[in-house]
Amino acid sequence: MRETSLAERPPRRRGRFWIVTLAALLTLSATVSLGRWQLSRAAQKEALQAEIEAQQQRPALDQEAFLAIDKPADALHRPVHLRGLWLAAQTVYLDNRQMRGVPGFYVLTPFALEGSEQTVMVQRGWVQRNFNDRAQLVPIETPAGLVELTARVATPPAHLLELGKPAAPASASAPAAEGGPAGEAQQPVVGSSPIRQNLDLEAFRSETRLPLRTDLTLQQIGAASEGLQRDWPAPALGVERHYGYAFQWFGLAALVVILYVWFQLIAPWRRARRGER
């Protein structure tokens, strides 16, 4: 007996063959396209990483150049060397931040620049939390007087998920509680605690009435000092994730090819061979 060709197959089987072939081609085209797109995204992220590293290696901006920054994105990650005063009374501790996998606080303090009316928020470093008493803060040193600061231009701190928001403060003109002295019933200003989950620079500027720049922050660099660690994590660009997704898409494309060849070509051929015997 001779092998049955595609043309000699029943019309129903021929129709099913072409439907499966079309579906396989469409799936293969989609998976290969998605894999190539993931590779292109990985290449973009690698280029961005190279740009960040190049910015970090550029000469540090002096105070005059920093004050003249109009577009923070152009100076992001670039070193700066400034001189000014720490405003220690407005120090903020951002909770649930990790360094080397250990939970703690990011410590932020406003820095008033010498010879100007501008203040910038500085991410000074990380300190481990007290696991026995969350409200007890580990003491850190804040130098008084004029100091020199070496840092990098950074975006404002990332916001973490908040399950609830504090209630609005009582108005300054609200009446005091019955039987109590005037002002005793007034609530503290929202966000006045040094420990916070997130920090909105616009709200902090209104709260403190500081001439704070809100479109950028600084990230202090250098060895650990003043009770703070500064092993800042590198920006999470997710290059490895894109390569992982590309591998999955190309793997799925290879699986489609293998299944198509087996069920559409090899399996019918084996059945035809068995029929000849």
Key terms:
277 residues; alpha+beta; OB fold (Dihydrolipoamide Acetyltransferase, E2P); 2 domains; 5-stranded mixed barrel; 5 helices; 7 strands; 36% helix; 19% strand; elongated
What's a quick, concise take on this entry?
This protein is an alpha+beta fold. 36% of the residues lie in helices and 19% in strands.
Describe this protein's structure.
With 277 residues, this protein is α+β, with helices and mostly antiparallel strands. It has two domains: 11-51 and 239-276; 58-158 and 190-220, Beta Barrel (OB fold (Dihydrolipoamide Acetyltransferase, E2P)). The protein contains five helices and seven strands, in the order αααββββββαβα. A five-stranded mixed barrel has the order 1-3-4-7-5. Helix 1 (11-56) packs antiparallel against helix 5. Residues 166-191 have low confidence and may be disordered.
- Helix/strand order, N-terminal first: HHHEEEEEEHEH
Outline the biggest β-sheet.
Answer: 5 strands, mixed, barrel
- The level-1 CATH class of the largest domain: Mainly Beta
Number of E strands: 7
Total of DSSP H or I helical runs spanning 4+ residues = 5
Rounded to an integer in angstroms, the radius of gyration calculated over CA atoms is 31 Å
**Mass-distribution shape:** elongated
Average of the residue pLDDT scores: 83
- Beta strand %: 15-25%
Helix share, percent:
25-40%
Uncertain runs are 166-191
Number of domains: 2
